[in-house]
Amino acid sequence: MTKEVLALALTVLVHVMGMAALVWALLHDDEKRSDWRDWWPRDDEPPEPPPQPRDRGGLPLPDATPSSVRLRSPGRIADGHPRPARRPEHAPERAPVPERERS
Q1: Three-class DSSP category at 55
Q2: Residue 92, domain member (yes or no)
Q3: Most buried pick, 21, 54, 57, 59, via CB within 10 A?
Q4: Distance CA 69, CA 53 (A)
Q5: Which helix (H) or strand (E) holds 18?
Q6: What is the pLDDT of residue 101?
């Protein structure tokens, strides 16, 4: 038996075992298992009321701050923010120190 045939047989065996497990799970009579009809709400049950919003002190929220850039005006967004420095400031150039004469 070649390796290709063995690989195909193993793949078919795994798929058959998986199908058997799925069919067993569908047909297994278990009282605790939910029914597929529980996935959608029924028409005879009243809908649940929506949850009440929590009181956070009204609007605007206490931690709300206005934006630093107005996006409705014409122009680029980048114009509202300063460009970051690309490199640090250069130190002043050092003047050459004259060498002392040897005595």
Answers
A1: coil
A2: no
A3: 21
A4: 31
A5: helix 3-27
A6: 56
* Structural domains of the chain, count: 1
Domain membership flag for residue 14: yes
Cβ-proximal residues to 49 (8 Å cutoff; 6+ apart), any chain = none
Average pLDDT over residues 40-53: 76
CA 88 centroid distance within chain: 35
Specify if 19 maps to a domain. Answer: yes
**Residue 12, in any domain of the structure:** yes
Range 81-94 burial, b when 16+ CB lie within 10 A, else e: eeeeeeeeeeeeee
Taking 80 as the threshold, does the pLDDT of residue 74 lie above it? no
pTM, rounded to two decimals: 0.32
Count of beta carbons in the 10 Å neighbourhood of residue 69? 13
Q: How far apart are CA 34 and CA 76, in angstroms?
A: 56
Domain encompassing residue 14? 1-28
44 DSSP assignment: T
